[in-house]
Amino acid sequence: MATTPAATPPLLRRVNASKLLGVLSTAGVMTGTGLIEATGLTRATVHAVCNDLIAMGWVVELDPGHDAPGTPVGRPSRRFEFNSQAGYVLGIDVGAAKTTVLLADLRGETVAKAGRSFAEVKTPTEQTEVVNQAVLETLAAAGVSDQEVLAAAVGIAAPVDRDGNILVDDEFWRRFDAGLTARLSELHGWPVLLENDANLAALGERWRGQAREVDDLVVLLAGERFGSGLMDSGRLLHGSRGGAGEMVYLKMVEGVGDTAGIARTARERGAKAVADPAVKTSLRALAGDKPVTAELVFAAAASGDQVALGILDEVTTRTARVVATLAILFNPELVVIGGAVAEAAKSLLPSITEQLAGFTATPPRVAASSLGDAIVSVGAVRRALNYVEEHALDLQLLARRT
């Protein structure tokens, strides 16, 4: 019978270093005693591994502290802190209309942000250049060099498998395979991780949004097009080729019929009403000589406009049906409506929740994201941090805390 090879000292040192980094990266200042209690490692091991991590730049040692009252008087405790400025990560959202770039330290705190429109973009090459300009602007604003960036993650509105490959079997999705990540890596030298935007939204929501501590989660991006990111038992679901959560099936759902999201549906119904001279609605005056927007429809409804209220009734029922299908298929504890439309969607939540009970025996809680249009870029930061934590002991650190 085969036996498992014994762990070698270097391997044990590596495992212990990862364990200590995992504790320190989510905590404040910790003493050696605190790390012993948190990790179960011996005092000698904790201090030896901390010395290694200090030498590598991941941990800093602070001035000695004093033990709690009542403990024996002796040498002051060594105090350690994770070096959140040892490097930086980038979270990049490549949307349909614009790109948003966040630069964050190693605790995930935003250091700089930039955005660029794709209004004049006509080719994938031009799109890549716009994204790169936003990256350069973000780095310049923070005074951070390429060498200080440890990883970047990019979100796009296409199926992406576990290895970061776009589903190119489908001609429509193949158009999204523009070589963006390879080009950014070539230009800057850091690893670039590609992921589906809704999957990143789920990571971001569970990390910094309404879904903290929630393991069974769906995040529904609901702006122009419905898309969903799925988490089961705290694990992101991709499917065999990255197609988990894709919502083309909505074309076959009665009362839904297509993948158009809340913003698009409200806008199109509002424009149709304004174009009909027989329809009396305040939307016409609100829009003036400009196109009708979803925001105008929500504003008109808030003022009591009956046409706008009717449009939002339709939007609400449609969204409730979408949420119900996800509830039936995946049985999440929580469904979070995310994207730029999230703030406006708060007014729809009571009616959506009420209607769910008529569609499924396992209705989830429904909430609107508090992350706004940053939900994907925040999730991209979390994805990049996951990579850094996984590969921490193999990365070279150039940034140093002042």
UniProtKB/TrEMBL annotation:
<keyword id="KW-0418">Kinase</keyword>
<protein>
    <submittedName>
        <fullName>NBD/HSP70 family sugar kinase</fullName>
    </submittedName>
</protein>
<comment type="similarity">
    <text>Belongs to the ROK (NagC/XylR) family.</text>
</comment>
<dbReference type="InterPro" id="IPR000600">
    <property type="entry name" value="ROK"/>
</dbReference>
<dbReference type="InterPro" id="IPR036388">
    <property type="entry name" value="WH-like_DNA-bd_sf"/>
</dbReference>
<keyword id="KW-0808">Transferase</keyword>
<dbReference type="InterPro" id="IPR036390">
    <property type="entry name" value="WH_DNA-bd_sf"/>
</dbReference>
<dbReference type="InterPro" id="IPR043129">
    <property type="entry name" value="ATPase_NBD"/>
</dbReference>
<dbReference type="GO" id="GO:0016301">
    <property type="term" value="F:kinase activity"/>
</dbReference>
<dbReference type="Pfam" id="PF00480">
    <property type="entry name" value="ROK"/>
</dbReference>
